[in-house]
Amino acid sequence: MMRAMVLESSGQRLRETELPIPEPGRGEILIKVQACAVCRTDLHLVDGELPGPKLPLVPGHEIVGTVTGKGPETKRFSIGERVGVPWLGWTCGECPYCRSQRENLCDRARFTGYTRDGGYAEYMTADERFCYGIPESYGSVEAAPLLCAGLIGYRSLLKAGDARRLGLYGFGAAAHLIAQVAFYQGREVYVFTRPGDRKGQESARKLGATWAGNSNILPPVPLEAAIIFAPAGELVPQALRSVGKGGTVICAGIHMSDVPSFPYSILWEERSLCSVANLTRRDGEEFLQLASRIPIRPQIEKFPLAQANEALERLRRGTLEGAAVLVPEGDPPCPVR
After folding, report:
1. Which member of 83, 112, 235, 304 lies 3.0 to 4.6 Å from 61 by CB, making a disulfide possible if both were Cys?
2. What is the pLDDT of residues 79-119, one digit of tens each?
């Protein structure tokens, strides 16, 4: 048996319970979880803002652990090897999106911690094709946030092209990580936080931001691109006003409150607005190599697995400094299969 935090119904707190250790199926590996970061998507799931989750559900999709078992036809990883498990957990390989190198848009995709059980547990299974080797330069707790906050931030940054002046709306885990990539690439970074969040703004400046201020004001210069990490629809018109002619605004979240109507004039002059959905395996491979080379250093707050609800509440209130990471307490028996 293993300990796990389970969502039984949307809108309820997670329940700590014991579950049978899962058996890896064809092409799957059994993973002993060492760390699982807490993502805002997990909060959207718990709050019932995402449709059709598997229920009951073990959330969590930023997972690092070691391989302790292998199902039939597994080839990539060896027993004892450390792996990372991201949000994208399976794709069909047959739909038009998969066949055109856009597996992130697969019609039948399955997602870790959403439509299949995730890492808020001592053990989990995953399709080995969608797992990553973890760079040796990272500890497991440190690496966990890279697997979603880092990956979705990286895909968003790709959408920004070669923009030299980059705005980041929201300065949580994803923005903290991707700002380090932007600095490495020689970009100017302008950070927007909740009005009055002086602590967050000072943190951004210390990290290297050119400017940091309230999200309801314009930056001192027109931006060339802006990424919105905060799930607040009212930031879309504000970000459009912040970018200059030909600028791009990228919405990075899986959920956002309704976007208010806005005048066409702030979209005109070839400004563009787009969203980012999920990730591809190639995104993960590229980003983990880049993260190790820079190197990116996540800011972490550790929580015991049993305190997952407390970590989610801290995320909801915006009082986390960096990424929350759940760590299973103790050292449960490690079955080898």
Report:
1. 112
2. 999 999 999 999 999 999 999 999 999 999 999 999 999 99
**Nearest residue to 46 via CA among 12, 6, 87:** 12
3-state secondary structure labels for all residues of the chain: CEEEEEECCCCCCCEEEEECCCCCCCCEEEEEEEEEECCHHHHHHHCCCCCCCCCCECCCCCEEEEEEEECCCCCCCCCCCEEEECCEEECCCCCHHHHCCCHHHCCCCEEECCCECCCCECEEEEEHHHCEECCCCCCHHHHHHHHCHHHHHHHHHHHCCCCCEEEEECCCHHHHHHHHHHHHCCCEEEEEECCCCHHHHHHHHHHCCCEEEECCCCCCCCEEEEEECCCCCCHHHHHHHHEEEEEEEEECCCCCCCCCCCCHHHCCCCCEEEECCCCCHHHHHHHHHHHHHCCCCCCEEEEEHHHHHHHHHHHHHCCCCCEEEEECCCCCCCCCC
The reported pTM is 0.93
Query: How far is residue 8's CA from residue 49's CA, in Å, rounded to a whole number?
Result: 15
Output the six-digit token pair for 243. Answer: 């970018």
Per-residue pLDDT tens digits for 205-263: 999 999 999 999 999 999 999 999 999 999 999 999 999 999 999 999 999 999 999 99
